[in-house]
Specification:
Elements lengths: L12 E3 L2 E3 L8 E6 L4 E7 L7 E8 L14 E7 L6 E6 L5 E5 L2 E4 L10 E7 L7 E5 L2 E6 L12 E4 L10 E10 L5 H7 L11 E5 L15 E2 L8 E4 L10 E3 L8 E9 L2 E2 L5 E2 L3 E8 L5 E11 L5 E4 L7 E4 L5 E6 L5 E2 L7 E3 L4 E9 L2 E4 L3 E3 L14 E3 L6 E19 L4 E16 L5 E9 L2 E9 L1
Parallel strand pairs: 19-23
Antiparallel strand pairs: 1-2, 3-14, 3-18, 4-13, 4-17, 5-10, 5-14, 6-7, 6-13, 7-8, 8-9, 10-11, 11-12, 14-15, 16-17, 20-21, 22-23, 24-25, 25-28, 26-27, 26-29, 29-30, 29-31, 32-33, 33-34, 33-35, 35-36
């Protein structure tokens, strides 16, 4: 009987509709801005004139940017245009530490503070045809809406800048990730449906998309000086970043689902069946490719280690009983079972070897390296059976043999009954003869030790025999 207990690693990864229990996928990266001189200049141009647009980003900060309350200046997230009335489009954090859109000194502020040290999605939408031309969003929900007193007329021919205004002022302190700039006014439904996941197939209206999935989080990134644009290859250049350590560098970003290539390690006891129904019985590296809910193709490389327990048992003892059972696995925990009594645990039988005191069938539960398995049942027979020598003239020749031998009785016997038993207590051959002094035997027995039991003239004689 084999009944392995399986031990899994913790945490979950969604594999289609199933839970794949391994480890959490590492989050994508982001950029940390030191609030002093870090910024990014892209080669993408934002919407100009009075055309519709949307700007989105994930931010994480603890900076207080409310003027007059001990706080600093506004925290610029994205900016483009020129420093003139109505000609600059600035998305930042300011009043109430909430998102704000500014156009030439006039603006609209949100009401939800986002400087709590957690990741938040912020967005601004400009729709010149709407009654409320400007809308601000926090974490996918509408936060404020209204109109400005200054007409929007953004200058053309200027590049989008991240983390500082185009005039070099108002740097951002904190982390920025997933910057998206659109040349269309995204609806509330579109914002809510896509704010919390990466986009794997950028729509044509997405002017620029900076995922920031580059570098090694908090590592040495001195050569990673470009912020890649995932939509139109309008990449950005990093300025003044330290690019080492936990600040002013690439860091772990907002934990958004998206297309990833991830390597995981797992250890499993016995055969492992994945959520798709494939069973693995050997260690190795296995690759899974699948499509996530947001359309991203992701790949997992699973480095799987299969741990097994040796459930073999060696049986030994006297010729007639063989009642000593020894588990082959060493340096393990053991519990011997009585198979004939509902596999009940035998009190005190927790050593590698077990000596049966009575005939029966026995197994052992073995726990080793965190894995548990149960052996087959082994039969013990012959306890209490004596092995009389009998007359010396009764012989088995040749002994050992290949299975062909003769039982020499030493004299003519009227009636003889002969039985051959294996060490498991099973009778494997029975033969009778009359008026003979010898019994020729031809067998196809497997190699091993056997007992020949001969009953003649009121006596029972047992002889040991070896088949090679």
């Amino acid at each position: 009987m084999h009944s392995p207990t399986r031990h899994f690693l913790t945490c979950c990864l969604f594999f289609g509709a199933s839970h794949f229990s391994f480890a959490q996928i590492n989050p994508s990266n982001a950029l940390n801005f030191d609030g002093s001189d870090d910024y990014v200049v892209t080669t993408a141009q934002g919407a100009s004139g009075t055309s519709a647009r949307t700007v989105e980003a994930w931010v994480r900060t603890t900076a207080n940017c409310i003027p007059g309350t001990g706080g600093g200046i506004q925290q610029t997230i994205v900016d483009w245009g020129v420093f003139a009335t109505g000609s600059r489009f600035t998305f930042n954090l300011l009043w109430a530490n909430a998102p704000r859109i500014e156009v030439g000194g006039n603006g609209l502020s949100g009401v939800t503070a986002v400087n709590d040290g957690y990741w938040h999605h912020v967005a601004v939408v400009y729709d010149p045809t709407a009654s409320n031309q400007y809308k601000l969003y926090v974490d996918g929900a509408l936060d404020a809406q209204g109109n400005l007193t200054v007409a929007t007329n953004t200058s053309s021919g200027t590049y989008i800048q991240i983390g500082k205004r185009v005039d070099g002022s108002n740097p951002f302190t904190g982390d920025i990730d997933e910057v998206r700039v659109w040349n269309t006014a995204r609806t509330s439904a579109q914002i809510a449906a896509n704010y919390n996941k990466e986009l794997c197939s950028p729509p044509i209206t997405l002017v620029a998309y900076y995922r920031a999935n580059q570098g090694v989080a908090a590592g040495n990134n001195s050569t990673v000086l470009t912020l890649n644009d995932f939509s139109n290859n309008q990449h950005g250049t990093l300025y003044n970043f330290a690019l080492t350590g936990s600040g002013s560098n690439w860091i772990a970003g907002a934990p958004l689902p998206g297309g990833k290539d991830t390597t995981l390690s797992a250890t499993h006891c016995g055969a492992f069946t994945d959520p798709l129904g494939t069973t693995y019985t050997s260690s190795g590296t296995y690759t899974y490719s699948y499509t996530m809910a947001n359309g991203c193709d992701s790949t997992i490389h699973l480095q799987l280690t299969i741990d097994t327990v040796d459930t073999g048992v060696t049986q030994s003892g006297t010729l007639s009983t063989m009642n000593i059972l020894t588990a082959n696995a060493s340096n393990a925990d053991y519990q011997w079972l009585d198979c004939g009594n509902g596999y009940s645990a035998i009190n005190g039988a927790t050593s590698q070897s077990f000596t049966a005191a009575s005939n029966g069938s026995y197994a052992v539960i073995i726990t080793q390296n965190g894995c548990t398995d149960t052996s087959s049942c082994y039969t013990v027979a012959g306890i209490g059976l004596r092995e009389p020598k009998g007359p010396a003239e009764i012989k088995v020749l040749p002994n050992p043999s290949k299975g062909s031998f003769t039982v020499e009785l030493g004299q003519t016997v009227e009636t003889v009954n002969m039985e051959i038993w294996d060490v498991m207590g099973r009778r494997v051959l029975q033969k009778s003869a009359e008026n003979c002094a010898r019994i020729p035997v031809q067998t196809k027995l497997s190699p091993g030790v056997y007992l020949i039991k001969i009953q003649a003239q009121g006596q029972v004689v047992t002889r040991r025999m070896v088949i090679e």
